């Protein structure tokens, strides 16, 4: 595991995506503990992509247009569903004013996991990214890829916790402003929809 891998991974993880958005929204609405659950769920959602990279399934996803489209549109539908639920303020990232929401940790984790698991681009990313740091002719390349993937997941979890805890801190003050919460709810819904439409027009290249 090289310094180059660690630095590159951190930069990639820091770039805001659907997982970061979900973790921040959950932290803001439901507090620090809930944000950690969201971070854990998003991290778990990486496991299918890691397994696909290790066992070569991502290559099948990369070459099979039908399979890629099926997974992609499942992900698009889920992101649009989250956008609608958030806009209506009755979904897993509900942002009602005045109180931290007692949302089920299991529900938070499952939502975060699905957000990443239903993104076929993540599997293709792992297929392209991890082999750059593994010796192709090594007899242990599968184990090496797995270890790098686990390291990536650990870093993801730590960074997402940072995002979530910071959002939870901001939420202590933001929850007192109805105007801010209304603006944030609509912005979050629009962001989920935007990620969904971006995924809809992506390809398996």
From TrEMBL:
A GO molecular-function descriptor: homoserine transmembrane transporter activity
Main location: membrane
Superkingdom of origin: Bacteria
Cellular component terms per the entry's GO annotation: plasma membrane
Organismal lineage: Bacteria, Pseudomonadati, Pseudomonadota, Alphaproteobacteria, Rhodospirillales
Keywords assigned: Cell membrane, Membrane, Transmembrane, Transmembrane helix
Compartment annotation: Cell membrane
Family from the record: Belongs to the Rht family.
UniProt name for this protein: LysE family transporter
Segments passing through the bilayer: 6-24, 36-60, 66-87, 108-134, 146-171
UniProt topology in membrane: Multi-pass membrane protein
InterPro entries: LeuE-type
């Amino acid at each position: 595991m090289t310094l180059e891998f660690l630095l590159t991974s951190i930069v990639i993880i820091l770039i805001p995506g659907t997982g970061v958005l979900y973790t921040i929204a959950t932290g803001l609405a439901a507090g620090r503990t809930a944000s950690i659950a969201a971070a854990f769920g998003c991290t778990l959602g990486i496991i299918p992509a890691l397994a696909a990279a290790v066992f070569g399934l991502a290559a099948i996803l990369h070459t099979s247009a039908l399979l890629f489209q099926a997974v992609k549109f499942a992900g698009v539908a889920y992101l649009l569903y989250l956008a609608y639920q958030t806009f209506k303020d009755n979904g897993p990232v509900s942002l009602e004013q005045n109180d931290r929401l007692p949302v089920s940790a299991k529900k938070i984790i499952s939502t975060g996991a699905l957000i990443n698991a239903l993104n076929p681009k993540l599997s293709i990313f792992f297929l392209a990214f991890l082999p750059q740091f593994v010796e192709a002719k090594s007899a242990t390349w599968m184990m090496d890829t797995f270890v790098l993937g686990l390291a990536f997941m650990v870093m993801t979890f730590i960074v997402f916790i940072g995002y979530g805890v910071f959002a939870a801190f901001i939420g202590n003050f933001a929850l007192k402003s109805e105007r801010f919460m209304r603006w944030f709810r609509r912005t979050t819904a629009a962001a989920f929809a935007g990620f969904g439409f971006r995924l809809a027009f992506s390809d398996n290249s």
